[in-house]
């Protein structure tokens, strides 16, 4: 809401400054000229926002001038409309401080604006758009809320409501009605109340006579009432109470229409009449016998309710009649009467529980949800008193305790309410009436033990009983709702030298004489003493410490031994044991240190021997929550034999690959066990991994997958066998993470297995039994597994560059969800600084992602990662010693090496491939070069130049591999030089290159060759590739080179077909970069649904011959529902593009499968994942291709470019 400054700033204090091009507006110019100049002023204010502080100050005098009499009383309606638009924008711009400080001036302004809203009536007026803008602005800013500060704001609101209801008509669209509703509803809901006059302006539209005159006003009033039902219900109830009950018909002109209004309001929303219906019911049911209980006067009804208590206690035979009277009065609109109904019933119950029947107690139970706090508090405290008297102290036997056994559950259910008062009261009741703090520890824990055992599911659920069981202790859970005062005490105690001793002292402090003194203070109204007492009550009563846990464990042992009083407390021994363990599990979350005793853990070990699965599960959970120091403090409990002796059947015996549905839980359990207890389980797991996980599970495909053609399916549709294989891969990773060493070379074998999984696209056995969606799951699992292993230094060191490249290429997978999930896992690990810097280079490959959202996400990930690393270096002085692994600029060598080994970079001199390389480089460099911090641009240039003086460590003797590396370096240098003007300065430091990827520079080796031709530089500069000239006529056909048998000629595509993802403003130099990928890849389609392939109309056609770079989409021609029309002749079959990095089936993968089955996997004979795999089988093309090739060359019609958006 806007505020009013103390002093008015008169317009005459400073010169009025008009916007540029606007001359002074005075009464000496014509109306046309005034309108012309005001339009420019309106445009200026429309373009301003709240952050334009300089402009706000500049045009402040003009804002005050526009509120002068000359404008507010101008006879020209166009002038008035423009001024109203300016004033509406002024309130928006200067919020929350209104520039007009005089209340009279504000009232005049808003009445003036309200009058202008009458122009909304004529929708065909040429000025209607301005009237609509005025309404929209007022509704959006809630400008009328300023009027709440005015004494006579009701006059403005009434005038506004009347205006809006009068102008609404059937020519208005939904937006006009919506803004009207927003404007009026904000006044009703944010004001202190609705006056009777304002209520009349709404209700009058519901009267039949007015309803028929203006149907739109009637609908507007209905919608407004339905939207503001909670705020306006009280005002409506007051109106009907005065008219119906008190007979004051003069309060409103609508008094004679009350019954029509009741019918209309009930049809709109019955909640509008929540408080009115009881009044009507009393009036209809009133008779001589109950006349006084239903009297129209509140004091009479109040006295009757108070007298009912004496009747119940002295005349039990009248209980039935009194029950009916009190039932009605428990819903009385007066708070005091509802309160006294509760007092009457509770007083009778405290004297003798038999005096109150279940129905009367039900009235009290209902009032625990009363809308008034005083009533709710009385009901809750009254029931708590009955519970303590009859259930805790058993003053009337078991039958009485059973009668009100529901009280504890209902009281705890109140903790679900949102009110902090309710929560605090439940806590107080719990500590004083359910588990009284005055009892000693053993009695107190016994109350807690059996209370927990007797609670229903809703009372125990989630954080509720957890909250109560730990209340007033040092370890209150942060999951508790609300900021409790006990949290303050917890924090205070934690700041002391020894928090544990401090708590014991606080506990004793509460039990000593000061507590008794505070109970009977000499000045009971002293607020300081009341606050101290309140704090002490919240700190100590239910204090959970080692003594309390020990008492609970002893009770549990008695229940196990059968010597406890379980039957007397109304629970079975099994239920008591289960509930006791659940209670201990809850406490183990918040008080783990209180469990550290041999006696406690010995008792829990006995529970593990029980056949009840839930009991064993709770005991294991307690060990998990509290056992961090068992190894150091209680080694006898930690011993391997102590635990394994409890399990007669090893978990590994339940492994049966023929029933994959039952494999998930054992695999997950074995993985976590081997990770958490590597010393005991790492060695036994080796045989399970070699014989079952690898040979029996991963290297066998037992079932045939559902060939649905989709690249991704929901979790429910994934086959159980594939789910088991995914968990098997995770088990391998957890097993290795637990060992944290590679002495047995198991990590090397695992990495080779994962690499083979990626090379084979997820189908490790090559039996074609796995469908595409399941293969996507396995590829994702393999890539994620390598990421997880790379986070452990001992495994990161043995990951080869080839395996790193295979892992990185998962981010270019053909399945959209694989790319999405893998990128998110990569980002999270990098942000936590647990993954080596080289993996950030993988994000550079996202430049080739065909989906715009994925590229945008990758860019945001890069920004976040770079920001985190730079901030970490600033905040940690020791980080300067590890700059090689932290400084973001050091990602460039890894990126260059990764791009040099990109399987798509087959012909590095081809312009399209060079453009792809530039896109990937710029995708990373753009983020790195945003700022030239510490002369980082020259550092990057020096780093790339140094790489050119080395050789590729992955293939140092391969001239082609080194040439690719140098070409990528030249492209990187070209990008850096074109982007930065300061990169030629001297580098502050000499970059260090990773020896794993680059050889040390040789003394006699100097590489000063430029690998980019002038044409290539021009293409990189402009982003345009010159089209090859077409051969002319017959001569061209005669001179045409014949294709080699079995291979189609290579046709170069244009720059517009390369699918660059770089926008015009993201290039180092030229704005001419094409945006064909943005156009082609963002066509709407459900991701991976039935593998849709969309042909984008208007895209240039390209030859179906071997494409360069990544294959953006795969045409499907198998005649199924996934196929699209093809322009190739029936007799020709296009040669399939080789799968990305996939070795021939006859050699590499077959050998890989054999070695994996033997426990050793090959290093990977191929490279990475294809972008989109061809769906047709290329196996039949070898024999028919020479003949078909010639026919295709003569008849081939270039098909339209087809884009698969769902990868």
Describe the structure.
The protein has 1207 residues and is mostly helical. The longest helix is centred in the C-terminal third of the chain and has 24 residues, at 852-875.
Q: Key terms for this structure?
A:
1207 residues; mainly alpha; Leucine-rich Repeat Variant; two-stranded antiparallel ribbon; 56% helix; flat; disordered C terminus; nucleus; mitosis; cell cycle
Our estimate of the beta-strand percent is under 5%
Calculate Rg over CA atoms. 40 Å
Number of strands: 2
Compute the separation of the termini in Å: 50 Å
Q: How is the topology of this model organized?
A:
Blueprint: H1 31-47, H2 53-58, H3 60-65, H4 69-72, H5 77-93, H6 103-116, H7 128-141, H8 153-167, H9 174-190, H10 196-203, H11 208-213, H12 215-227, H13 229-245, H14 258-268, H15 277-285, H16 298-314, H17 319-329, H18 335-351, H19 358-367, H20 373-392, H21 397-403, H22 407-413, H23 420-434, H24 441-454, H25 457-460, H26 464-469, H27 485-494, H28 499-511, H29 513-519, H30 527-539, H31 546-561, H32 573-590, H33 598-608, H34 613-626, H35 630-633, H36 635-638, H37 640-644, H38 664-676, H39 678-698, H40 720-739, H41 746-759, H42 772-790, H43 793-796, H44 801-808, H45 816-831, H46 852-875, H47 883-886, H48 891-900, H49 911-928, H50 936-948, H51 959-979, H52 1014-1022, H53 1033-1038, H54 1076-1081, E1 1094-1095, H55 1145-1157, H56 1181-1195, E2 1202-1203
Antiparallel strand pairs: 1-2
